[in-house]
Amino acid sequence: xxxxxxxxxxxxxxxxxxxxxxxxxxxxxxxxxxxxxxxxxxxxxxxxxxxxxxxxxxxxxxxxxxxxxxxxxxxxxxxxxxxxxxxxxxxxxxxxxxxxxxxxxxxxxxxxxxxxxxxxx
Length: 121
What we know:
Elements: E1 9-11, E2 16-19, E3 30-37, E4 47-48, E5 52-58, E6 60-65, E7 68-73, E8 77-80, E9 86-89, E10 94-101, E11 105-107, E12 115-116
Antiparallel strand pairs: 1-2, 2-3, 3-10, 4-11, 5-8, 5-10, 6-7, 6-9, 11-12
């Protein structure tokens, strides 16, 4: 059984991520986490080296992926492909559950090296 704890929470200027199943918490292949993003927040453009599956449990988001913008509402699932630029915007506060292979890294335009996702490790 895995329970949320203060050390499993990462807050950025745009959202709060709560690690659920991750390698540091017992998973060997997958990482799952919860994203809470407040209304009006927009994350940076980035790409992820692994496919991600986002299931919205509350609110809605707008995702621009590969030049196309879609709105995703609570109860729907979004599959984001690997290595494709994307940006997430919260037209209203949302909560999502995200799943990805545990070895994914993020690339941000203008940054030389990829970043690990601390909430996915």
